[in-house]
Specification:
- By secondary structure, the chain is α+β, with helices and mostly antiparallel strands.
- 15% of the residues lie in helices and 32% in strands.
- It contains six helices and 24 strands.
- A hairpin with a 5-residue loop joins strand 5 and strand 6.
Length: 412
């Protein structure tokens, strides 16, 4: 009897399911489940880091794009990724692109990461021309309304119209009335800032401060300006013939400009195929001359939002063929920018120390198109050493009102 009972128990034991089938399948599925559990356990440990340690980590991040990546790890990390914990200062500009099929969206491209770092829904910029300074957009509508717009917080500061005292019957709208805009400091940091613009067909200067009800013109006579920038207090401007003037909006005579120096003599009376910029780099003021060549555009544009006639014909546009760099007051051309890189276009011209930022090439000029006629991809990197151009981003921007522009990112 005992022997029969032992046989019965052995038979029952042989029919029991294996341990793998108990937990739900084959050994491979068991391994997969274990890996998932390990990942969840690891993520759980990262999410459980003490808040003071997370704050210390966030404060050590220098670049805003890394700070954005930090905020995307998990909820606890995102909770400390606030502006007060971001201690970065100098940033590399992002490339802002608008899409014709999505007029409210703006893509921001990181050259370090080689792709889209952020897409922002920005209906406040729809159908408007955008200029840039210190991370803020200056938006201009077809009827002349102007605003300062922060692209990430969507904070807006209303500006007086510059166009209200001018008759612009020859133009369809006011989108191209403002040529350049530059801020003295970031509005999110202090209300003690000033905005200077180049305006009108005569390319004069005017400035606005937060307490002002209207724009104040700078006394420059019949001089036309091509670019402006702040440097150690005063605002500097370069004219179409290479002359540099400055004025101090915080001084006793804020509307009085004084002569600073000239660019090279060969630059004077340059004609229409050169564009001067002014930028501070390595603690000196540089005049950068962008040289163009004529090229034929064999496409038919649907419309020209900048008020020029469009007869459905092929037209000439201007492609960048090179740059020449001079220090203000010096007639000798600079052949190298050293460890610096320049970013030029419809933004406030800016220089960064390339060695501080992986992916940014020293002794190069990063530029976007200055002509808003849908002429194609003119956003490239110019190498000062060998004179070669290469695209800085392959995708084109199809927007006629908001061409590609550099944005120096700030708080979000």
């Amino acid at each position: 009897m005992e022997e029969e009972e032992k046989k019965r128990r052995r038979s029952s034991s042989s029919r029991r399911p294996s341990s793998s089938s108990i937990v739900g399948g084959s050994p491979s599925s068991l391994s997969s489940n274990n890996n998932n559990s390990i990942e969840e356990e690891r993520m759980g440990k990262w999410a459980e880091l003490p808040e003071d340690l997370l704050v210390l980590t966030a404060e050590r991040l220098i670049l805003l794009e890394d700070f954005l990546s930090f905020s995307g790890v998990c909820r606890s990390w995102r909770s400390v990724a606030i502006n007060d914990n971001f201690k970065g200062s100098e940033q590399t500009p992002w490339l802002m692109l608008a899409k014709k099929d999505k007029p409210d969206d703006r893509q921001f491209i990181s050259l370090r990461k080689g792709g889209v770092i952020r897409t922002v829904n920005l209906p406040e910029a729809r159908g408007k021309r955008c200029l840039e300074s210190l991370g803020w957009l200056v938006t201009i509508s077809q009827d002349g309304d102007m605003n300062l717009l922060h692209p990430f917080t969507r904070v807006q500061i209303n500006l007086p119209q510059v166009t209200k005292n001018y008759h612009l019957d020859s133009m369809k709208n006011h989108l191209s009335f403002i040529h350049k805009a530059v801020l003295s400091s970031r509005p999110e940091e202090s209300n003690d800032f000033v905005l200077v613009v180049i305006y009108g067909c005569s390319r004069r200067l005017a400035f606005w401060r937060p307490e002002d009800k209207s724009w104040t013109a700078v006394n420059v006579g019949l001089i036309s300006f091509c670019d402006i920038n702040f440097y150690k207090g005063p605002c500097y401007g370069v004219t179409s013939n290479g002359m540099v003037l400055a004025f101090d909006v915080w001084g006793r005579n804020p509307t009085l400009a004084w002569h600073v120096g000239y660019g090279p003599r060969e630059f004077i009376g340059h004609g229409g195929l050169k564009q001067p910029y002014i930028v501070q780099s390595a603690d000196v003021v540089l005049i950068v001359i962008r040289v163009f060549r004529e090229a034929c555009l064999s496409v038919f544009l649907e419309d020209d939002h900048f008020g020029f006639s469009n007869n459905g014909e092929s037209r000439v546009y201007y492609a960048t063929c090179g740059f020449k760099v001079f220090e203000v007051g010096e007639c000798v051309e600079k052949t190298s920018l050293g460890d610096n890189a320049l970013f030029l276009g419809d933004n406030s011209s800016v220089s960064v120390v390339a060695s501080r930022f992986r992916g940014i090439k020293s002794n190069c000029i990063y530029y976007t198109s200055n002509f808003k006629r849908g002429e194609g991809n003119d956003m490239c990197i110019y190498d000062m050493e060998d004179g070669n151009h290469r695209p800085c981003y392959e995708e084109e921007s199809s927007s006629l009102t908001c061409p590609p522009i550099w944005v120096n990112p700030s708080s979000f």
